[in-house]
């Protein structure tokens, strides 16, 4: 296990990173404003699962393998961007419906909220690069199992990220009730989510691994 001083230092670095606006924060804020606090927190659960997935991949060396295989990184990035672009088109096309609109979600809307949060995080391979580049800076072979240290540090990052994003999603969600009572909000909601998803798709598509 890493010493407490290392965990605290890593926690501060993680806090600085999560406070920097990125795809996850933009997605969760938009989701919470459009559909409410509960939807934002359910989506955050999916985002957190995405972090867990990437953490285990980094800890077991799978991430390093993917990044060394030609075109594997780009394939993951492009697939994620295409999925987000598809969701954006569903919201923005004439007569389209937002994928996040409450009354148009199927009965298993909670599962869909969770799944979309997971896929949105998974669609950004920058998370994998972050774990692969950041974790080794705080790992020392003298402190025991490298795997155990990687998992401990990953848990710290996830805890910090979930705590901060839960607060942000809750605050954004409180706006949803106010906006829902305003005429024309359904149209604004559809365009807001479509624009956000399209922006995230472009951002992910244009990102390089460096």
From TrEMBL:
This is LysE type translocator family protein. InterPro entries: LeuE-type (IPR001123). The chain crosses the membrane at residues 6-29, 41-69, 75-92, 113-139, 151-180, 187-206. The keyword Cell membrane applies. It is a multi-pass membrane protein. GO terms for molecular function: amino acid transmembrane transporter activity. GO terms for cellular component: plasma membrane. It is found in: Cell membrane. The keyword RNA-binding does not apply. Keywords: Cell membrane, Membrane, Transmembrane, Transmembrane helix.
């Amino acid at each position: 296990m890493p010493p407490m001083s290392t965990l605290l230092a890593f926690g501060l670095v993680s806090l600085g990173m999560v406070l920097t606006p990125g795809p996850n924060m933009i997605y969760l804020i938009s989701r919470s404003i459009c559909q409410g606090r509960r939807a934002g927190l359910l989506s955050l659960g999916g985002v957190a699962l995405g972090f867990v997935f990437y953490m285990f991949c980094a800890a077991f060396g799978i991430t390093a393998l993917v990044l060394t295989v030609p075109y594997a990184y780009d394939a993951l990035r492009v697939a994620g961007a295409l999925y987000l672009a598809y969701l954006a088109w569903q919201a923005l096309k004439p007569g389209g419906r937002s994928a996040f609109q409450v009354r148009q979600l199927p009965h298993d809307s909670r599962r869909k909220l969770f799944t979309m949060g997971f896929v949105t995080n998974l669609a950004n391979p920058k998370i994998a690069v972050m774990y692969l580049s950041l974790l080794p800076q705080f790992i020392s072979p003298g402190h025991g199992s490298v795997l155990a240290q990687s998992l401990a540090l990953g848990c710290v990052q996830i805890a910090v990220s979930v705590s901060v994003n839960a607060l942000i999603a809750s605050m954004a969600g409180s706006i949803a009730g106010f906006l829902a009572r305003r005429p024309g909000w359904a149209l604004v909601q559809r365009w807001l989510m479509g624009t956000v998803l399209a922006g995230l798709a472009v951002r992910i598509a244009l990102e390089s691994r460096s």
